């Protein structure tokens, strides 16, 4: 799929001979790949193979042991990517609507909170405090910031965890829409998410 | 809404909303200062001489108790990852969190020091200066406290460690704050407190943000 939407000038990820270590143990070495706008890259690998470490390294939280990560054409480096990890980052006493407002401010979002709530099936839950959400609803709330604050690169770590069939379809729909707009998605998964990956990468032994 | 306004609002809501932590330090402060007259007995002169500076000790310990979870909760639930991806610098987000803590906990404590100081036999005309000194002192404590909270965010039961890190830096404001409460060199002591508070507000968030970046690894 070629990028033709609002993100068409936005970053390409170029990873060259990347090597990462965690707790003194080398997880993988010599990983190279390129992901273009519109790409959907699936990262595969067993438990502990380094999928999360790779995503956190791409996000800039971890420093690579060796190798290079470049985001070409990144117009505004501060607004280039979203990272959705295992933790949802929710506060139990705060309502769904307040989380949406907070993220819109925090991420410098230009998105519409109502649209984001609609796309992830949160519209009926807006006044609920986060502690009353189910695991799947919490995950959908966490994913909503992808829509709230549009950014060209999405790094998703097991994004479908705890989602029901309906939630998985919503996730597939926002990924397809993001790619069609020229965005780029890198996801670590155990089961296919739905959208056909443009590239599959296996890490670890 | 900017990232800083959003952070400030959220932290205020967390501290004051639904069983938040802002009432506990206030209760501790009032409880501790109200017990002193009972413990020291009916000797008015003794209380008038030794009592008023105790509002500063109680306030320092009350704010210390709020620091442990300040960044630890954000580290545990993944919120810190989000803050690092904000277009706003982490230093400013930390400053916004500190400002929210000052408004939610520091200002109520400073205001509560008025009845507490009177109960401890402070001269009534000194009470406004004591309240003002604690408004400044709370800003100083929180500026320093941000660093201790950030350094220990990844440590389970880090409360003791925070105390060891920040209490030495609590000493200067306590010394000058106690001078205000004791009615000695009030103007000069307030100036020094203001200077210390400004330095802590300026340097605390920078140091704390550096520590938090390491915590995200």
In short:
Chain A is of the alpha/beta class and 205 residues long.
Write the layout of secondary structure elements.
The complex is a heterodimer of chains A (205) and B (217).
Chain A: E1 12-22, E2 25-35, E3 40-44, H1 51-59, E4 66-72, E5 81-84, H2 96-106, H3 113-119, H4 135-148, E6 153-157, H5 165-180, E7 184-188, E8 199-202
Parallel strand pairs in A: 3-7, 3-8, 5-6, 6-7
Antiparallel strand pairs in A: 1-2, 1-4
Helix pairs in contact in A: 2-4, 3-4
Chain B: H1 3-16, H2 23-40, H3 44-50, H4 54-77, H5 79-84, H6 90-119, H7 127-151, H8 159-181, H9 186-215
Helix pairs in contact in B: 1-6, 2-4, 2-6, 4-6, 4-7, 4-8, 6-7, 6-9, 7-8, 7-9, 8-9
Shape, principal axes of CA atoms of chain A:
globular
The radius of gyration computed from the alpha-carbon positions of chain B, rounded to a whole number of angstroms, is 18 Å
| Protein structure class of chain A | alpha/beta
Regions of chain B with pLDDT < 50 over 5+ consecutive residues?
none
Number of strands of chain A: 8
Percent of residues of chain A in beta strands? 25-35%
Distance between the termini of chain B: 29 Å
Mean pLDDT of chain A: 88
* Architecture per CATH nomenclature, i.e. the level-2 architecture of the largest domain in chain A: 3-Layer(aba) Sandwich
Largest interface: A-B, 31 and 30 residues
The CATH superfamily of the largest domain in chain A turns out to be P-loop containing nucleotide triphosphate hydrolases
Oligomeric state, counting identical vs distinct chains: heterodimer
Shape of chain B: elongated
Helical proportion of chain B? Answer: over 70%
């Amino acid at each position: 799929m070629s990028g033709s939407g609002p993100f068409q000038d936005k970053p390409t990820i170029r990873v060259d001979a990347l090597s990462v270590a965690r707790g003194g143990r080398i997880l993988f070495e010599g990983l190279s790949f390129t992901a273009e706008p519109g790409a959907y890259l699936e990262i595969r690998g067993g438990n502990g193979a380094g999928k999360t470490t790779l995503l956190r390294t791409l996000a800039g939280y971890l420093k690579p042991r060796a190798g290079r990560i470049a985001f070409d054409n990144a117009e505004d480096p501060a607004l280039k990517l979203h990272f959705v990890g295992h933790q949802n980052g929710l506060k139990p006493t705060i309502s769904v609507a307040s989380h949406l407002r907070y993220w819109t401010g925090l991420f410098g979002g230009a998105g519409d909170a109502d649209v984001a709530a609609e796309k992830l099936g949160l519209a009926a839950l807006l006044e609920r405090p986060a502690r009353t959400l189910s695991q799947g609803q919490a995950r959908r709330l966490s994913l909503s910031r992808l829509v709230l604050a549009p950014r060209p690169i999405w790094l998703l770590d097991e994004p479908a965890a705890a989602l029901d069939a309906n939630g998985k379809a919503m996730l597939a729909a926002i990924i397809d829409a993001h790619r069609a707009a020229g965005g780029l998605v890198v996801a670590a998964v155990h089961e296919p998410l739905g959208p056909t990956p443009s590239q599959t990468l296996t890490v670890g032994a | 809404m900017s990232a800083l306004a959003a952070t400030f609002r959220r932290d205020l809501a967390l501290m004051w909303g639904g069983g938040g932590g802002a009432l506990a330090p206030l209760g501790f402060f009032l409880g501790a200062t109200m017990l002193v007259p009972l413990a020291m007995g009916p000797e008015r002169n003794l209380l008038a001489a030794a009592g008023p500076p105790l509002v500063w000790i109680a306030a320092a310990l009350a704010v210390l108790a709020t620091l442990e979870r300040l960044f630890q909760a954000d580290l545990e639930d993944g919120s810190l990852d989000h803050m690092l991806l904000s277009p706003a610098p982490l230093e400013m987000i930390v400053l916004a969190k500190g400002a929210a803590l000052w408004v939610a906990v520091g200002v109520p404590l400073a205001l509560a020091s008025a009845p507490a100081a009177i109960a401890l036999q402070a001269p009534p005309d000194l009470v406004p200066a004591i309240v003002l000194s604690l408004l400044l002192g709370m800003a100083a404590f929180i500026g320093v406290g941000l660093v201790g909270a950030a350094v220990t965010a990844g440590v389970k039961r880090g409360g003791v460690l925070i105390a060891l890190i920040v209490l030495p830096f609590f000493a200067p404001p306590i010394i000058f704050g106690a001078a205000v409460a004791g009615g000695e060199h009030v103007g000069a002591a307030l100036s020094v407190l203001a200077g210390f508070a400004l330095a802590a507000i300026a340097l605390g968030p920078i140091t704390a943000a550096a520590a938090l970046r390491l915590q995200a690894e």
